[in-house]
Amino acid sequence: MDLVKLGRSGLQVSPLCLGTMTFGEADESSFMHQVGCDAKTSKAIMSRALDAGLQFFDTADIYGQDGLSERIVGDWFKDTGARDRVVLATKFRFTTASGSGASRRHIIRACEESLRRLRTDWIDLYQIHMQDIEVPEEETLRALDDLVHQGKVRYIGASNYAAYRLVDSLWISKAQGLSRWVSLQMQYSLVERNLEKEHIPAALRWGLGVIPWSPLASGFLTGKVRQGQAPADASRLAKWHGAFQGMDNPRHWGILAAVDKVAEETGATPAQVSLAWLLHKPGVSSVIFGCRSVAQLEENLPAAELVLSSAQLDTLDQASAQPLPYPYDFLFRVQGRW
């Protein structure tokens, strides 16, 4: 698949990004307990993804207990010698054995431990997993800037930030001459479109590459669960408390019906249509998806090449539209946009 630039940075990535949250069989202490795949399957997925041209991998120190996902990725690098062919992204912020938060102390320690688990000398994209309102943004940015200058990190990215904090952070970087975010990883899908109100305009203004996570809404947009049916016992919709209940409403079934319509028109699967819709949205550089088998990977790969017509995009946009709250409704009535 053709590579694209991550926002306005010089970093080139595949339009699909392999999420590794499902890598490893985590125990009861992990939120991924019983919804992951074993190390052998994880390594087969990575090898097939790279062979298919998907060279952007995303992990985090919190995925699996004690950095399990990072360790599996690192072992695969050792086995295959493929480190130079992969754009590697990982994240820090949440609680691990080394601590938590976005303080200078924790960032430096978390980075060193991720490098060790990943068996690499550098991280291509190091991301804060969520803003930390207890730590001054200047402290976080200075620590990350030092890691960039040390060569341990090539680029930095933000994830799960409020729009006000994101823009404030970008201004601090500009004013103080620090490395700044090149990407923004956020939840974004046909089901969850709130990002479009503030974050997408900010990303376009500042040249951030948007990297959606949960593009298939925990599997709902694959179409494998239908109205009136219970999700499969092993699925995330079933395992994660309240996930399916949150999806079981008229709006979401209407979205799935629109996805089915476009899938029938294009000969694609509902998952491919849902991923392709995001790749057509302004600001989006690469879409993260996870999988637990090579078969699931193969199903999603064609989304990178799927072209949707204007009419098909309108069908999906209208089905997934959300009422505008104030002040967006007021601005839209007056000027037709905000």
Task: Summarize it.
The protein has 338 residues and is an alpha/beta fold. Helix content is 42%, strand content 14%. The protein is globular and about 50 Å long.
What would you note in describing this structure?
The strands form two sheets. The protein has an eight-stranded parallel β-sheet. A two-stranded antiparallel sheet has the order 1-2. Helix content is 42%, strand content 14%. The chain has helices at 39-51, 68-80, 104-118, 137-149, 163-176, 195-206, 236-239, 243-247, 250-266, 270-279, 294-300, 310-320, 328-335, and strands spanning 4-5, 12-13, 16-19, 56-58, 87-92, 123-128, 153-159, 181-187, 209-213, 287-290. The longest helix is centred in the last third of the chain and has 17 residues, at 250-266. The relative contact order is 0.13. Strand 3, helix 1 (39-51) and strand 4 form a beta-alpha-beta unit. It contains 13 helices and ten strands. By secondary structure, the chain is an alpha/beta fold. It has one domain: NADP-dependent oxidoreductase domain (TIM Barrel), CATH 3.20.20. The radius of gyration is 20 Å and the shape is globular. Helix 5 packs parallel to helix 6, helix 9 (250-266) crosses helix 10 (270-279) and helix 9 (250-266) runs antiparallel to helix 12.
